Amino acid sequence: MNKKISASAPGKIIITGEHFVVHGSYAVAAAINKRVRVSISEMKNGESCIVSQNSRSSLKNDDGRFQAARKVAQEVLERYGKIREGGIELEISSDIPPGSGLGSSAAVSVATAGALLKFLGVDPRNEEIYEISMKGETEIHGNPSGIDIQAALLGGMVLFSKGAGAKTISLDRGLQLLVVFSGQSRKTSNLIRKVGVRKKQFPAFFECLTEAASCLSLDAVEASIRGDFLRLGTLMNVAQTSLSWIGVSNPVLDEIVELAASHDALGAKITGAGGGGSVVVLPRPESAAALLKRISKKYPMSFITSIPQEGLKWER
Ligand code: PMV
Questions:
Q1: What is the pLDDT of residues 3-47, one digit of tens each?
Q2: Residue 274: CB within 6 Å of ligand 1?
Q3: Catalytic residue flag (residue 123)
Q4: How far is the CA of 296 from the centre of ligand 1 (A)?
């Protein structure tokens, strides 16, 4: 039988600190129950390729598709040598909507790095998977902080800053969050650029907001550990105010946040780069299912995820 290795990695939500984390603040992310699966199989002959659903693309030649997976695979092959005979087929399947702010490119990068390293007989270390996956993420986002990659790799809830790296947080009680995809996809790199312009216009104020994002994130970790959901929700609402001010919200996202608040949610905010993408809502634990039902009437691509979820794993 031909050799085949599969790995999967989760998407993520950011609970506090997106954008400011690019400029040095702490942020908190968590892996969600939507994953990307990557399988690598041997091909006896033919050119190495990347496939997904009905789409097929050469691994060597950049045709603008599968950029994260291609970059990661090329990096692994550069480090660990060519495939001996024939080629490989790298197959991607995902239940994370692209452009939804749920970390789909990071999950693709981590699952590709993990599966391909293992396929080549390398015992993958987290540090190396992180380093290689960042190449894929940089290809897509230009200037990523690394938080999406760490959440996809480590799973669970992660406190992250560029200076301090990632730390997984163990929770006494798990939590349930509602994720609402606005249906508007967008490019993270454009939003990171837009925020960069804001920073140039208001450097001192931006610096204060970056410090505030760190305070919010450290407090959010404490509140999550203690299971103090009332406090966590309030912190998320404050985070949304900062994100609005730096210009990454829009009328649809504001409407989702207000809809959640009007149905008694504890907190709601953009998750990820904004400008479209998704909103994360902290519902009252007893009314999560009812809130999902109401919000799904207008935003059918909504779902509940429990935290924690597993990070990178190898699959049969
Ligand atoms: O690409 P997204 O929407 O998953 O968001 C990434 C979070 C940012 O802080 C905007 C960018 C980053 O790399 O930290």
A1: 899 999 999 999 999 999 999 999 999 999 999 999 999 987 778
A2: no
A3: no
A4: 25
In short, whether 103's Cβ falls inside 6 Å of ligand 1 is: yes
Query: How many Å lie between the centroid of ligand 1 and the Cα of residue 46?
Result: 37
To test the pocket of ligand 1, the residue of 20, 28, 102, 141 to mutate (highest count of ligand atoms within 8 Å of its CB) is 141
Cα–Cα distance measured from residue 257 to residue 278, given in angstroms and rounded to the nearest whole number = 10
Tally of CB atoms within 10 A around 93: 15
pLDDT beneath 70: ranges in the chain: 1-2, 82-85
The alpha carbon of 199 and the centre of ligand 1 are apart by a number of angstroms equal to 16
CA of 47 to the centre of ligand 1 (A): 34
Quote the distance between the C-alpha of residue 234 and its chain's center: 23
Kindly give the number of the ligand 1 atom that is closest to the alpha carbon of 277: 3
Give the pLDDT confidence score for residue 201 in this predicted structure: 97
- Residue 152 is predicted with a pLDDT of 98
Q: Does residue 188's CB lie within 6 angstroms of at least one atom of ligand 1?
A: yes
Task: Give the Cα separation of 209 and 239 in Å (integer).
Answer: 10
Is the model's pTM score more than 0.90? yes
Contacts of residue 274, defined as CB under 8 A and 6 or more positions apart, other chains included, come to: 18, 19, 101, 186, 191, 243, 248, 249, 250, 253
DSSP 89-147: EEEEEE-SPTTSSS-HHHHHHHHHHHHHHHHTT----HHHHHHHHHHHHHHHHSS--SH
H-state helical runs in the chain: 67-80, 104-119, 126-141, 147-154, 188-201, 203-226, 229-245, 251-262, 288-298
**Taking phi first (over 0 means left), then psi (-120 to 50 degrees means alpha), and beta for anything else, what does residue 11 get?**
beta
Residue 81's pLDDT is: 76
Query: Looking at residue 149, what is its pLDDT?
Result: 98
Catalytic residue (one of 62, 123, 148, 172): 148
- Pocket of ligand 1 contains residue 15 by CB under 6 Å: no
